[in-house]
Specification:
The complex is a heterodimer.
Chain A lengths: L3 E5 L3 H10 L7 E5 L2 H11 L3 E4 L8 H11 L5 E5 L4 H10 L3 E4 L4 H20 L1
Parallel strand pairs in A: 1-2, 1-3, 3-4, 4-5
Helix pairs in contact in A: 2-3
Chain B lengths: L10 H23 L6 E3 L3 E6 H11 L5 E10 L4 E8 L2 H8 L13 H27 L5 E2 L3 E7 L14 E11 L5 E8 L4 H13 L3
Antiparallel strand pairs in B: 1-7, 2-7, 3-4, 3-5, 3-6, 4-8, 7-8
The chains are: A alpha/beta, B alpha+beta.
Bound molecules: magnesium ion.
Chain lengths: ~130, ~210
């Protein structure tokens, strides 16, 4: 089950947009962080089921935060939500261990697809 | 010298515009990275309201580390209208020539280095400005047209943007973003100087954009 969701983005509007795209019929527990460092700290404390991660952020970028989180938890489920859709950016984050990359502005069907895929992967991981 | 952005737009509207600018600039970087061989490092966009009479000084403040700059300028108009200024630090033109994937240096005759530099800046400028303004307009449901880009190569930074360039009675909304190229070290700033008359439309468009996410 995916229940605990951490959203890491420096833009309060982007966090709001993302939350509004998550299905309303499921009960999620939301946590938010405004930069990569806060994101890493919250990750340690909360161990969320899914982390949505922006890339361009002050204090600590998403690129660094992903690396830090993967160091703590190699199975972390990180979905990058970014405006930076350069091939080099996508490759870097996937190489660092992000699960997938979604392009801003976020849309409901993108999120639904990502959640299904993440759930699938998590269940498969649990069976092994 | 600059007014608080929140005097003209609410803080929600400023946040929204900033995020839209972020998305728009991501699009430009992605388009550009298909032409040049390096990752474009994006920064967090910044929104400020500046009196047009102070714009010249404002822009100068941002380029004061450089004695020479190159500028690509393009005007855009739709419901959203204004002037895009892409300012490159000195040497950027030559750096960009080296980064262009389809370099045609071989086919150009000696002595045309300056032409190649200005053409490269024009091309890069056109991609960055077009993708950024185009995406911004698209997200806000507008259609814009552009004047052809113009370029000033390696001008004295103090005089490159003349004080009388803009209509003095207006307040300009400045959307500014800095960028760096991972290789080659070229840096630049993109300023979108949007006319005050676009504000009424802009507020409405931002609200409509947000309503999709209520
Ligand atoms: Mg961001």
């Amino acid at each position: 089950m995916i229940k605990k969701i951490l959203i890491v983005d420096d833009s309060p509007i982007a966090r709001k947009m993302l939350k509004s795209c998550l299905p309303k019929d499921r009960e999620y527990e939301f946590h938010e962080a405004g930069n990569g460092l806060e994101g890493v700290n919250q990750y340690k404390e909360l161990e969320p089921d899914i982390t949505f991660m922006d890339l361009t952020m002050p204090v600590m970028t998403g690129y660094e935060a992903i690396e830090e989180i993967i160091k703590i938890d190699t199975k972390a489920m990180i979905i990058v939500v970014t405006a930076d859709v350069q091939m080099s950016a996508i490759k870097t984050v996937l190489d660092s261990g992000a699960f997938m990359v979604l392009r801003k502005p976020i849309k409901k069907d993108q999120i639904l697809g990502a959640l299904d895929k993440a759930m699938d992967t998590k269940e498969k991981g649990a069976q092994v | 010298m600059s007014e608080q952005a929140t005097d003209i737009l609410s803080s929600d509207e400023v946040d929204t515009l900033q995020e839209i600018m972020n998305i728009a600039f991501g699009q430009s970087a992605s388009d550009l990275s298909e032409v040049i061989d390096t990752h474009v490092v994006l920064s967090i966009p910044f929104i400020e309201f500046v009196k047009v009479t102070e714009l010249h000084t404002y822009i100068q403040q941002h380029v004061k580390e450089y004695s020479k700059i190159s500028i690509v300028e393009q005007k855009y108009w739709g419901k959203f209208k204004g002037d895009a200024l892409l300012i490159f630090a000195s040497g950027a033109g030559r750096e960009l020539i080296l980064l262009l994937k389809n370099d045609e240096q071989g086919s150009l005759e000696a002595g045309s280095a300056e032409i190649l530099e200005s053409e490269t800046l024009l091309e890069v400028g056109n991609i960055l400005i077009g993708a950024c303004v185009g995406k911004l307009a698209e997200l806000l449901n507008d259609i814009v047209t552009y004047t052809p880009p113009m370029v000033l190569v390696e001008e004295d930074a103090r005089n490159a943007v003349p004080a009388n360039k803009f209509d003095p009675d207006q307040t300009a909304i400045i959307l500014k973003t800095d960028f760096n190229f991972e290789q080659g070290g070229a840096t630049g700033f993109l300023f979108l100087v949007t006319k005050n008359e676009s504000v009424v439309w802009l507020k409405k468009a931002l609200q409509l954009f947000l309503e999709q996410y209520e």
